[in-house]
Amino acid sequence: MFAQLPERQMHWVRWMLTLAWLLIIASLFYDPWTPALTEPDHPWSPLRLPDTCISVQGKCLVEQPYPLGTTIFWGAIVPAAIFILLVFGHELWRRICPLSFLSQIPRLLGWQRQFKRENAKTGRVRYELAKVKPDAWLGRNYLYLQFGWLFAGLCGRILFFNADRLVLALWLLFTIAAAIAVGYWYGGKSWCNYFCPMAPVQKIYSEPGGLLGSKAHTSEQLITQSMCRVTLPDGKEQSACVACKNPCIDIDSERSYWDGLSKSEDVFLRYGYVGLVIGYFVYYYLYAGNWNYYFSGAWSRQTDQLATLFDPGFYILGYVINIPKLVAVPLTLGVFTAIGYQTGRWLEKRAKAYSRRHDTGISSDVIRHRLFTLCTFVIFNIFFIFGGRPLVLLLPVWVQYAYDLGLVLLSTLWVYKTWRRSPDLYSRENLANRFRKQLAKLNLNVSQYLEGRSLNDLNTHEVYVLAKVLPGFTKENRHQAYKGVVREALEEGYVNYSSSLEVLQQMRRELGISDDEHREVLEELGIEDPELLNPDRQRSLENQIRMSGYRKSLERLILLQQQASDSLSMDQMLQQHSTQIQALRHQYAITPQEEAWILSNFSPEMGNIRRAEFLVAQLPQLVECYRALNQPILREHRAVLMVLQESVHHKKEVMARAVLATLATLQDDPQAVELARSLGQLTSMVVTELLETEPWRDRLHPGILSYLSQPGANTLACSLDESPEEILSYLKLLLQDPNPLIQTACLYIIAHLDPAQGQALARDRTCSADSPLLQETAELILSLPTPYPPLTAFPTLEKVVSLFNSDFFHRMHPETLIKLAERAEVRLYQTGEVVTEAGDTCRELLLLLEGDAEIRRYHDRNDVQIERLQPGQTLDELDVLAHSQSQNTILASSKQTRILAIPVDTFDDLLDQDHDFARRVLELESRQLQQFMRSLQPLADYP
Fold first, then answer.
1. Nearest CA to 616 among 535, 680, 694, 573?
2. β-bridge partners, 854
3. Burial of 603 (0-12, 13-18, 19+ CB in 10 A)
4. CB 229 within 8 A of CB 223
5. What is the radius of gyration, based on Cα positions, of the chain?
6. Model confidence at 122: pLDDT above 80
7. 163: closest CA among 73, 98, 76, 79?
């Protein structure tokens, strides 16, 4: 609820709170006024010193009137911060925290550490803002550092500055100086994220979200929660994020929480903090021998605190234990921290074991999350039994009861809200929100189904239900919407190529999208934007927000310049404002590569044109690659080559389709003409196929169609004289494809063309291959003698390639083919040997691999129709699908006939699990039935 408060308003709030805090620090140095309120004979002050004995180790404390700075700080300010974190969430606290505000002074003054970077080729110099690297020691261990500082701070409270105003003031000033120094040393909110001792406390009480906190992952706002932001002169707010931390609690606290749930440092922090806080409060009892010492608040006004450092640290059951307080305090807090951590780990193991024994279906992450939730609930209420209690006890009894009941009620409501959260629920909500945005882009008429509600009002399940019942939500729309979700998830680093299949599984189930369709979407995205699937490029939501902030600042600067002068080009405007742009680059830590990418996509239209130009620029290489795969030298590997040729042809189709979509948007724009001319010259056959099979003619401008339908004179001819070295270069390029079947086919052909290179590449793949098919092929290449034997020596690859080239399984997704091949069996038959006999129950789908076979169809005893089969044809697939008895006899008719047998159970399993596979099989069988009926039509018409 506080995420949307205007930044200008919050800026004044921060100023007031910071000045109030600095005033309290000043009062620690000089305060001649408030001691009067603590005089024992003050007529009305509730803070006057009591006339009762406060016993410490069996002796009554001697107390004098005292300034109220320490009492207010420990009794009101610190408890208020804990209350704000649990109830209102970090999104309020991080926006009002005075220490966070002061840490930004170097940024506001432009005094921040920078690294000088010089381009060796161009000589261009730029300055890069210093940030904490995730793989540095600090990036890996910051939680331990923060917890250590928190531990030291609690020890310091008891030993040095609970009551000593001068030491407390110096400690607070040291902390402020450290925050400002970190603000100079590192960019962004590095103090808050990596150093502040309050940060672990924030994590515990405000993650996964405050009671009244907002949900960033379902918000339509560009600036969420406590994200860094600035106010522009026109009053609008803009992100100022520099991606100093990933994931960042300021952007999405729940995302940060689930990301750290399985990390050992988070486990130590959660359980250790419970022990640390309990140990802190218990020590007052262990030291004084009673609870009255703590609840009276005498510890906050004990002016001789430093004089007690070497006094006995324990007084238990009336006995003094002569361990100095200086040692006893860290010893006690350390022991309780260790007990808290070990107890939490023990409870977690017991809970997980119970869940496994009783098969509750609750995941380990949810068990840990619920234990974390209980820890926060328990320690919040324990804290407020003690925290601020010396001041609360001064209030009327009914106010004390209302205070206690209110805290328990609020913390219980927080538990109720938090208990139901889970990583899966967060993921479903996140993806449903992304899908909701994609639905909105399709401009479908949904109002008649929502009864006055909007898409934003629908919950996670309702969004998917709506998509299923919308008449206009075709298969193509579903594909485009899902593709948009995947693209956005990849851009933000929410998923990567390997994790996307699992993370998006629930969404695919809701929409009826198969795993193979998902892989097809990934392939399309990888072709349209290769960097999107680049594993070496670290993508994150934080980086997206950082670059978006720079882009919006640049847009505003250019808009102001255009209002002043319309005649200047983009380059001229950038040159005129080079100083301001340099400041923006520094503010957002923008690299030259990032700036080039932002400028190339400065407007949606420009971004589409740049993307289309990029795709057209990639087409010549694909055309050359396709030519290399059609060289006579590779003819003996034709079966394997078909896999690669189909892949390259499909990539050309995807690229051409994406360019056609851009042309449909541009219509008769001059830039569209040049794109159309280049596309028609490079891929005339592919474009012709698309124009004939898809409704592009209705979407494209007639002038553009003329360039696409009439390729120019520069159409590339197919050369058949490429050298083996050139062919190998293209095969190595295809070897980088993420598809395991493409990788395996390339490795196989490379090994036959150049055994030495093949073995070197196979050696690398045996260590890193994720695919059993690729692993097996690489091992065979290393073990078989050279020159390598034919495809039959590579059993799994042969089965997959044979399935791929068959009429029945052609264009099936590689993963489906590999699954079939793993459970299929190759059988050898001699001339005249029976493969199947009429009357046998069809238990296997048969595919002819090599040799000849004949089907004998018996109409009656004397009428036998013989049909000869060629390699690649399937045998009696209709009988297999129907689980019926074979009506025909199949005989081997060559000296060596090899047949691939796929168990019908395997086939049925895939039909049940893979709806896309079932649809393809149905389409294929429908076409075959239509062909069969057409073949019978002349006989029916014969008189």
1. 680
2. 868, 891
3. exposed
4. yes
5. 36
6. no
7. 73
Q: Are strands 114-118 and 59-60 parallel, antiparallel or unpaired?
A: unpaired
Give whole-number Cα distances, 419 to 200, 207, 364, 729, in Å.
21, 12, 14, 56
CA distance 300 to 703: 85
Q: Report the pLDDT value the prediction gives residue 174, as an integer from 0 to 100.
A: 96
Confidence of residue 913 (pLDDT cuts 50, 70, 90): low
List the alpha helices (DSSP H) in 492-531: 500-503, 505-511, 515-528
Kindly state the tokens that stand for 9: 């308003």
**Interatomic CA distance for residues 466 and 473, integer angstroms:** 9
Return the axis-axis angle of helices 724-734 and 638-666, rounded to nearest 10°. Answer: 60
Q: Is 753 exposed, middle or buried (0-12, 13-18, 19+ CB in 10 A)?
A: middle
Q: Which of 375, 329, 335, 368 is nearest to 200 (CA)?
A: 375
In whole angstroms, what is the distance from residue 376 CA to residue 735 CA? 51
- What is the three-class DSSP state of 128? strand
DSSP reduced 3-state for 584: helix
Indicate the SS3 state at residue 459. coil
Comparing C-alpha atoms, which of 803, 939, 935 is closest to residue 867?
A: 935
The C-alpha atoms of residue 641 and residue 638 are separated, in whole angstroms, by 5
Pure H helices in 224-324 = 253-260, 264-288, 292-295
281-305 as b/e, with b when 16 or more CB fall inside 10 Å?
bbbbebbbbbebbbbbbbbbbbeeb
Tokens of 840: 């046998």
Q: In terms of Cα–Cα distance, which of 303, 260, 373, 284 is closest to 28?
A: 303
> Are β-strands 237-239 and 312-316 bridged in parallel, bridged antiparallel, or unpaired?
unpaired
| pLDDT tens track for 840-855 | 766 777 888 888 888 8
pTM of the predicted model, to two decimals?
0.80
The percent of residues above 90 in pLDDT, for the chain, comes to 34
Phi, psi of 541 (to 5 degrees): -60, -40
Within 133-263, residue ranges assigned H as helices are: 137-156, 165-185, 190, 199-206, 253-260
**840, 801 Cβ separation under 8 angstroms:** no
Residue with tokens 């209030």: 395
CB 147 within 8 A of CB 72: no
Which residue, among 902, 889, 797, has the nearest Cα to 847 in the 3D structure? 902
